[in-house]
Prior knowledge:
The protein is mainly β.
Amino acid sequence: MIRASLAALAIALPAAATSPSTGLPEWLAGRWCTVEGARGQTCEQWLPAAGGMMLGVSQTVRGGKTSEFEFMRIAMDGDTAVYLAQPGGKPPVAFRAVAGGEGVTFVNAAHDYPQRIHYRVKGDALTAEISLADGRKPMRFNYRRVR
């Protein structure tokens, strides 16, 4: 499962902020963690934009063991940001950014699940939601910035 580990990455800027030079969601940079619960604790770490991309990693620890991990990157394809997810180290799956709304939304309607990945930040809180392209079957992850 793709963890909205999108949670990564520079001190809290407005949710819709992007770098005018790269179009990357630089406000995602940083370390973000969920509250530990029945599914364990998930932390996402996003590096600041450099060289035209952002790199991220997600790790879920449950009962002292890694239960899930994901490598992520957001890179530009022309004027469009593309989110590449590699859950469990599998081959990357690309999701293209779509315009509109608060935060950033990436879509790949041809993928099984998720088809849509949405990140939104407000202060030190990051919300990541995965769903079908039309928003059905949502799963939401609430992260807090870890300093």
